[in-house]
């Protein structure tokens, strides 16, 4: 077994375990921490697949900015574990069963897909910032600009919604 | 690695996200589960990108760039979504002193 | 310029008058309304005279003027077209002429109405005349039917003119419904005609050279069926047995309206229609027989009822029914000219009698019961004299107009079958009796009303009396256009004029020519009998005293109009009502309502159950979505 394969299985297992941790933790704080673990493992996968730029962005944006935002909100509300009342047990079981069923159906549907090898860690420069930046500012310049407008409106929206009512 | 393992991994993460969204009542955790689902899709997109870089699937190498930029835009949109969504949760908490999504049942009437 | 081309103005003018008076009824003053209402009819009348003179020219061929395509569906093609020939031009003249006089009369008679209602009244009158003109001018059965329906509608509107009174409204509804029954027959007849012949145009049907009618064998079942159905329409519109009861009830409308309905428009529509389709009827002797029998029995039945009526307008109404019976008798025995002639003379003297009755009612302050009148001749000279002339005319005493026309019909009946003649003559004697009874009771003897009424009695204003005088003049001389052959060779100018219309039928009909001596003898006998009866009635009722005793026996039956209304009530109205009640209570409530409500309740219940799924909780919705996705994927997998 090559080192990359070992890394793949390790990162996959870590991601799944951490994801389960997100769902099962009582306290939202632990959920956030588990989610950060998931993001890191996914970033690891990105690096394995020569998507270095995305790996960095994922860590900076998700694990850094967004998760910090979550933490801020949680701490601001001062929530503790007991704040969450027990949900209807039947609905919970139904939710779990439905999710499992969905997974089985997906797997059953996609197991027939062509067996294509994805070579890991064979260097190309597609995932590098130089290549992606070139594409972003030529082919994708309009979506890029529009996304900046989206950010602006999201910012305005967040301020308007979060503002204390007079 | 074969592409199917990436598919299975991302399906697993996606379904865990769904189960979380279905079973938890804490709005913030539901929100985080949604982020998890987004990330699982991102992972799959990157895997397809890699698939197009080399080997049998590499019919159109430019798709590799496209897929990665797609992921990039998903992240952009997710960031915007999170900022607005968290603002909504904050406001909801301010009004009801709870973040139980079962309080948000106005759709009933 | 050919004046025939202006024919469209004849119906258009009354329609314009209807629109102006109807739409601006709140604005126009009463005098303006009278001028517009009567003026448009007068203009129509003038045009009709011009057209009539044009038509009278030698060698006139019927003209069809088509304006636009009215119906074009599949093989059926119906034009909006007018046909001008001798028959329609004569009817134009009668309708517009008599209507004009009635309009003038109305300006005075209705002047106590408030201005908007006055205008409403005149707009209805104009619409009435318009419909009748449309009926007469139409070049095919569909256009005729349009006018036919319009006339029915207007009669409804005018009979129910005082719509605040429930019984008047009921009378209006009765007239409308009875007419509808007949109209259905007419409509079915048209459908059958379209089915059998593929056309409804008079030219296509009756043209002597190219008409479809030439290829149809005599008395074929199709022809008998169509003519019977058309006759059903005529029965409704012209108030024959069994649909005549609406006409006496139609007295609920203002008196000039009664005059209009009875004399110039509406009831003559049936006569016109059969005269127009004379060829078809001639080829269907079975239907002719039915027409003659229905006409004759109506004539007798209505005359007997009129004997015992005490309402001045009811007597006249039954006399109209009876006279219409005579016209149908004339049509039924093939005396088409006689029937049309009688329409004309009847229009004059019946308008005269009704307007005279209106004048009396006006003077008596709305009193209708002739038992409470009497001695009016001293107070209302002109009305009395003109009414007297009308009575002589309708009774058939020479040389007044009714004599000539009735005599012609009876001669036709004699030629067909002497039995018809004898019964018809009996009816004529009854007519003479009840008319002179009416005259004597109204104008002779002592006044039997209240003091107040006596004080109020006066001669009517000039608009009324002048109208009466004109009509009385027409009633006297109107018969002179149809002097029988045995009195004056070539004297029957009307027959000559109408010859192109009826020539073909007359050729087909087997006529038993009766010798002139017989004819003279019959005329003399009938005249003497009529004069005797009239004198007897006059003498009997001249010094009428109010009787308090209840009528008994046969007289009671007559007074109650043979209990026909009660009979209809028992055999048609009540069963229908109980059927409706049954349908309402059982079928409607538990059947249809139950079904509708059941469906509603079921959906309501179902939705209440399904509503529980809509918990409003986001988690539940996501669950649904996930289940939906699973199902879709499974379907996708198994569909491969």
Could you list some keywords that capture this structure?
heterotrimer, A: 166 residues, mainly alpha, Four Helix Bundle (Hemerythrin (Met), subunit A), C: 640 residues, two-stranded antiparallel ribbon, 25 helices
Explained architecture:
The complex is a heterotrimer of chains A (166), B (109) and C (640). Chain A starts with a helix and ends with a helix. Chain A folds into 2 domains: 3-125, Four Helix Bundle (Hemerythrin (Met), subunit A) (Up-down Bundle); 128-166. Chain A has 166 residues and is mainly alpha-helical. Chain A has helices at residues 3-24, 28-48, 52-77, 89-110, 129-138, 141-162. With 109 residues, chain B is mainly α. Chain B has a single domain (3-108), classed as Orthogonal Bundle (Helix Hairpins), CATH 1.10.287. In chain B, 76% of the residues lie in helices and 0% in strands. Chain B starts with a helix and ends in a 13-residue tail after the last helix. The relative contact order of chain B is 0.13. The model of chain B has no long low-confidence stretch (mean pLDDT 82). Chain C has 25 helices and 2 strands. Chain C has helices at 9-23, 30-56, 86-109, 115-137, 141-159, 166-197, 202-206, 221-237, 246-249, 255-264, 268-276, 278-282, 285-307, 312-332, 336-363, 381-395, 401-416, 418-443, 451-456, 462-477, 493-508, 516-542, 553-559, 564-611, 618-639; strands at residues 63-73, 76-84. In chain C, strands 1-2 form a two-stranded antiparallel sheet. The mean pLDDT of chain C is 84. Chains in contact: A-B, A-C, B-C. The interface between A and B is large, with 83 and 75 residues.
| CATH domain topology of the largest domain in chain A | Four Helix Bundle (Hemerythrin (Met), subunit A)
Contiguous low-pLDDT stretches of chain C (5 residues minimum) are: none
CATH homology group of the largest domain in chain A: NADH-ubiquinone/plastoquinone oxidoreductase chain 6, subunit NuoJ
Mean pLDDT of chain C: 84
Question: How helical, in percent, are the residues of chain A?
Answer: over 70%
Helix content of chain C: over 70%
Structural class of chain A: mainly alpha
Major sheet attributes of chain A: none
Instruction: Report the β-strand fraction of chain A as a percent range.
Output: under 5%
Number of strands of chain A: 0
Our measurement of the CA-to-CA distance between the termini of chain C, rounded to an integer number of angstroms, reads 84 Å
Largest inter-chain contact set: A-B, 83 and 75 residues
**How far apart, in Å, are the first and last alpha carbons of chain A?**
64 Å
Q: How confident is the prediction overall: mean pLDDT of chain A?
A: 83
Query: What integer value in Å does the Rg of chain A equal?
Result: 20 Å
Compute the number of structural domains of chain A: 2
The coarse overall form of chain C would be globular
Strand order of the largest sheet of chain C: 1-2
């Amino acid at each position: 077994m090559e080192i990359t394969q070992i890394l793949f299985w390790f990162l996959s297992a870590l991601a799944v375990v951490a994801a389960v941790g997100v769902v099962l933790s009582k306290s939202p704080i632990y959920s956030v921490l588990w989610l950060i673990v998931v993001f890191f493992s996914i970033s690891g996968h990105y690096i394995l697949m020569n998507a270095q730029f995305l790996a960095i962005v994922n860590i900076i944006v998700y694990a850094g900015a967004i998760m910090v935002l979550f933490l801020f909100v949680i701490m601001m509300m001062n929530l503790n574990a007991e704040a969450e009342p027990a949900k209807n047990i039947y609905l919970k079981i139904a939710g779990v069963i439905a999710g499992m069923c969905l997974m089985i159906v997906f797997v059953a549907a996609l197991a027939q897909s062509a067996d294509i090898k994805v070579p890991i860690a064979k260097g190309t420069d597609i995932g590098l910032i130089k290549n992606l930046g070139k594409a972003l500012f030529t082919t994708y310049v309009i979506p890029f600009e529009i996304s900046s407008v989206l950010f602006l409106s999201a910012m305005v929206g967040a301020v308007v919604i979060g503002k204390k009512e007079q | 690695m074969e592409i199917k393992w990436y598919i299975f991994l991302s399906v697993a993460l996606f379904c865990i996200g769904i189960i979380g969204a279905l079973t938890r009542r804490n709005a913030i955790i539901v929100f985080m589960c949604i982020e998890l689902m987004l990330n699982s899709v991102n992972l799959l997109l990157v895997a397809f990108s890699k698939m197009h870089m080399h080997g049998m699937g590499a019919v159109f190498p430019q798709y590799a760039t496209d897929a990665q930029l797609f992921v990039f835009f998903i992240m952009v949109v997710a960031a915007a979504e999170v900022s607005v969504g968290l603002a909504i949760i904050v406001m909801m908490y301010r009004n009801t002193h709870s973040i139980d999504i079962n309080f948000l049942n106005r759709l009933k009437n | 310029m050919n004046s025939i081309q202006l024919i469209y103005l004849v119906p258009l003018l009354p329609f314009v008058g209807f629109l102006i008076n109807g739409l601006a009824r709140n604005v126009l003053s009463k005098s303006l309304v009278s001028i517009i209402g009567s003026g448009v009819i007068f203009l129509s009348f003038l045009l009709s005279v011009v057209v009539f003179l044009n038509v009278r020219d030698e060698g006139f061929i019927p003209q069809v003027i088509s304006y636009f395509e009215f119906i074009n569906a599949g093989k059926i093609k119906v034009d909006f077209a007018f046909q001008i020939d001798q028959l329609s031009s004569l009817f134009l003249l009668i309708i517009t002429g008599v209507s004009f006089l009635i309009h003038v009369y109305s300006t005075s008679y209705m002047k106590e109405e408030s201005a908007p209602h006055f205008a409403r009244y005149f707009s209805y009158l104009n619409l009435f005349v318009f419909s009748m003109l449309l009926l007469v001018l139409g070049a095919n059965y569909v256009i005729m039917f349009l006018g036919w329906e319009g006339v029915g509608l207007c009669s409804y509107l005018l009979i129910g003119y005082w719509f605040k009174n429930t019984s008047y409204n009921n009378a209006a509804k009765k007239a409308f419904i009875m007419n509808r029954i007949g109209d259905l027959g007419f409509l079915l007849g048209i459908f059958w005609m379209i089915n059998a012949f593929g056309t409804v145009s008079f030219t296509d049907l009756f043209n002597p050279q190219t008409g479809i009618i030439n290829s149809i064998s005599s008395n074929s079942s199709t022809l008998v069926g169509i003519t019977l159905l058309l006759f059903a329409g005529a029965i409704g519109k012209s108030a024959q047995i069994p649909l005549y009861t609406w006409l006496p009830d139609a007295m609920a409308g203002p008196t000039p309206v009664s005059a209009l309905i009875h004399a110039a428009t509406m009831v003559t529509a049936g006569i016109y229609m059969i005269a127009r389709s004379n060829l078809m009827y001639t080829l269907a002797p079975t239907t002719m027989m039915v027409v003659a029998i229905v006409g004759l029995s109506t004539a007798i039945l209505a005359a007997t009822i009129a004997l015992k009526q005490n309402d001045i307008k009811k007597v006249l109404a039954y006399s109209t029914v009876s006279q219409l019976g005579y016209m149908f008798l004339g049509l039924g025995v093939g005396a088409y000219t006689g029937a049309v002639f009688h329409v004309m003379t009847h229009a004059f003297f019946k308008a005269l009698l009704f307007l005279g009755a209106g004048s009396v009612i006006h003077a008596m302050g709305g009193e209708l019961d002739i038992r409470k009148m009497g001695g009016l001749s001293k107070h209302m000279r002109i009305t009395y004299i003109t009414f007297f002339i009308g009575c002589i005319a309708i009774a058939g005493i020479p040389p007044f107009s009714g004599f000539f026309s009735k005599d012609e019909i009876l001669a036709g009946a004699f030629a067909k079958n002497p039995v018809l003649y004898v019964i018809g003559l009996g009816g004529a004697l009854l007519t003479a009796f009840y008319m002179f009874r009416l005259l004597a009771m109204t104008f002779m003897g002592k006044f039997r009303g209240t003091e107040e009424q006596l004080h109020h009695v006066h001669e009517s204003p000039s608009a009324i009396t002048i109208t009466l005088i004109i009509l009385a003049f027409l009633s006297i001389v109107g018969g002179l256009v149809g002097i029988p052959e045995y009195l004056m060779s070539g004297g029957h100018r009307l027959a000559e004029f109408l010859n192109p219309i009826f020539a073909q039928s007359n050729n087909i009909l087997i006529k038993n020519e009766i010798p002139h001596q017989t004819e003279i003898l019959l005329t003399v006998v009938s005249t003497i009998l009529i004069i005797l009866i009239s004198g007897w009635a006059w003498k009997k009722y001249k010094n009428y005293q109010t009787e308090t005793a209840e009528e008994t026996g046969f007289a009671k039956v007559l007074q109650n109009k043979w209990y026909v209304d009660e009979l209809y009530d028992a055999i048609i109205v009540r069963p229908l009502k109980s059927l409706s009640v049954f349908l309402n209570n059982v079928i409607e409530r538990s059947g249809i309502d139950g079904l509708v409500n059941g469906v509603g309740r079921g959906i309501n219940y179902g939705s209440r159950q399904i509503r529980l799924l809509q918990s409003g909780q986001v988690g539940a919705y996501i669950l649904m979505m996930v289940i939906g996705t699973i199902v879709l994927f499974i379907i996708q997998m198994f569909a491969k």
